[in-house]
């Protein structure tokens, strides 16, 4: 879904292991997209990367008869909308591993890692804009930008080739190298 305000896409994902399906940060969809999503039902859950990515989850929760999950540190912000919580290290449906990222815009910001597919899904931790590059949200969104970057260094230990982003354009190959390059460049700039 294109955001006029931001100038880039907001993205949601349907993840399937062939038997079970989940949605991640689902955005508002047109009829054709909703029909596609509906055909894949049932859904085990809707997983949110952070409190600001509720997006179209409440609507889909009702239409698809599923539950909404979020990291335990963000539940307080969406108390009436969230059914369950997860924490760092939890293994969720479709072989998704929860990677909690501290010192981000949202206290419960998480990455979802699919190791067998070499895929990493991020909400607001990194933005894919302009296409093919990475950036952070504006500095005023963070309490301590150095600790924000330090938390993101955790991603370097993961084996991934694809980076699916909640905002902007995803990186479909060579994503780990681009992530390392971004972090190194950012650290060198803020160290000066």
What keyword list fits this structure?
5-stranded mixed sheet, alpha/beta, 192 residues, 4 helices, 12 strands
Could you walk me through the main structural features you see in this protein, from its secondary elements to its overall organization?
- The structure is a single chain.
- With 192 residues, this protein is an alpha/beta fold.
- It is 22% helix and 22% strand.
- The strands form three sheets. A five-stranded mixed beta sheet has the order 3-4-5-6-7. The chain has a five-stranded mixed beta sheet with strand order 8-9-10-11-12, with no helix packed on it.
- The chain has four helices and twelve strands.
- The model has no long low-confidence stretch (mean pLDDT 94).
- The chain has a single domain, classed as Ribonuclease Z/Hydroxyacylglutathione hydrolase-like (Metallo-beta-lactamase, Chain A, 4-Layer Sandwich), CATH 3.60.15.
- The chain has helices spanning 31-39, 57-64, 145-152, 175-191, and strands at 2-3, 8-9, 13-16, 21-24, 45-47, 68-71, 84-86, 91-92, 96-100, 110-114, 119-122, 162-165.
- It starts with a strand and ends with a helix.
- Strand 4, helix 1 and strand 5 form a beta-alpha-beta unit.
- The protein is globular and about 50 Å long.
